[in-house]
């Protein structure tokens, strides 16, 4: 039997520290966007439940990627891959009791190259999944939104009622604007049709399960040091962000599935993980004994880069439901890198 990676050990620790999914037993869970960073981690956590009696459906568009990512579950009768594009109506007749909708590209290269598809995945995806849920007795859905909906703030930590400026007349706005609209759509379904849906606003999430096309900064930094390279920053890296380990992010989604109120949004973040892009690069480089160097062009193209300089989150609302992060940023980064190195 292969030795467990630090990532797998961290998932096991969730159960050792009290994670209980008994309320889901005997039911079915659909994870849309299951091959993405967060969706795949949700699948891994549920499949690791030592008392699991839950049918897990991992939905995505890329069967090859799913077969590779979930090879460990290929012979498990309680796991199934469902080929699904959420921009199209759900034609399946399987009774999905619970849904976690993580089907959205969060990588900035898609914001520049495929802004239409980004918008459709968020808005049409929510509508199609909730329509399906209404017709098939949905017990609960969690929509995975983003702290980017807050736009440009005033320097204070975002609460769930914060609302900052987003320039909607830019291609880059495809992501925050469609996330905002999708959230409103969730609230509309909950209000008009009593559809049970909760919104999770994730901060910047990192971990070892990113895809080959992911060009978020953490993924680029990880690739650099694992190839034995220094990290080259094209800016001063002064943007200040909340960062959260993917195991904590996925844990929060499952917690909200069980304990979040319908028609409510919750920030998901870790106040101890608030650092600049430069500090993130320095921590990753230090792990690999590499350096951070600067190569700042005279004129930088900001077309697919968020203009938000500071994005931190007030997490008191979700903490009142009993959730808190279990892994600090130093642990999360080192466990991510150790897992990737072992693979």
Could you characterize what this model shows?
The protein has about 350 residues and is an alpha/beta fold. The strands form three sheets. A seven-stranded parallel sheet has the order 3-2-1-4-5-6-10, with helices on both faces. It has helices at about 5-15, 35-45, 65-70, 110-115, 115-135, 175-195, 215-225, 245-260, 275-285, 315-320, 330-340; strands at about 30, 55-60, 80-85, 100, 140-145, 195-200, 205, 230-235, 240-245, 265-270, 275, 290-295, 310. The chain is globular, with a radius of gyration of 19 Å. Strand 2, helix 3 and strand 3 (about 80-85) form a beta-alpha-beta unit. The protein has one domain: Rossmann fold. It has eleven helices and 13 strands. This is NAD-dependent epimerase/dehydratase family protein. InterPro entries: Epimerase_deHydtase, NAD(P)-bd_dom_sf, UXS-like. Its cofactor is NAD(+). It comes from Hallella mizrahii. Keywords: Decarboxylase, Lyase, NAD.
């Amino acid at each position: 039997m292969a030795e467990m990676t630090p990532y797998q050990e961290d998932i096991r620790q969730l159960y050792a520290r009290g994670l209980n999914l008994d309320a889901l037993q005997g039911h079915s869970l659909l994870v849309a966007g299951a091959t993405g960073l967060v969706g795949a981690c949700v699948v891994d956590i549920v499949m690791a439940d030592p008392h699991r009696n839950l049918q897990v459906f991992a939905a995505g568009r890329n069967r090859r990627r799913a077969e590779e990512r979930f090879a460990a579950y290929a012979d498990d009768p309680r796991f199934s891959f469902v080929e699904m594009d959420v921009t199209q109506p759900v034609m399946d007749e399987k009774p999905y009791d619970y849904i976690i909708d993580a089907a959205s590209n969060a990588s900035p290269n898609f914001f520049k190259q495929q802004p239409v598809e980004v918008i459709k995945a968020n808005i049409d995806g929510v509508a199609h999944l909730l329509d399906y849920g209404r017709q098939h007795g949905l017990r609960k859905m969690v929509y995975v939104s983003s702290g980017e909906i807050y736009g440009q703030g005033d320097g204070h930590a975002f609460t769930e009622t914060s609302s900052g400026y987003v320039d909607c007349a830019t291609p880059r706005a495809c992501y925050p604007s469609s996330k905002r609209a999708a959230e409103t759509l969730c609230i509309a379904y909950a209000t008009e049709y009593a559809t049970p849906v909760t919104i999770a606003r994730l901060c910047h999430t990192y971990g070892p399960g990113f895809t080959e096309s992911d060009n978020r900064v953490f993924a680029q930094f990880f690739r650099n040091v694992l190839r034995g390279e220094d990290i080259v920053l094209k800016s001063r890296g002064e943007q200040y962000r909340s960062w959260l380990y993917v195991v904590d992010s996925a844990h929060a989604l499952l917690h909200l599935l069980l304990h979040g109120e319908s028609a409510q949004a919750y920030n998901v973040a870790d106040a101890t993980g608030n650092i600049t892009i430069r500090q993130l690069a320095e921590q990753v480089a230090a792990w690999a004994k590499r350096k951070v160097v600067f190569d700042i062009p005279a004129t930088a193209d900001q077309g697919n880069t968020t203009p938000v300089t500071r994005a931190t989150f007030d997490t008191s609302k979700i903490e009142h439901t009993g959730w808190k992060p279990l892994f600090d940023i130093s642990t999360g980064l080192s466990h991510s890198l150790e897992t990737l190195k072992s693979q």
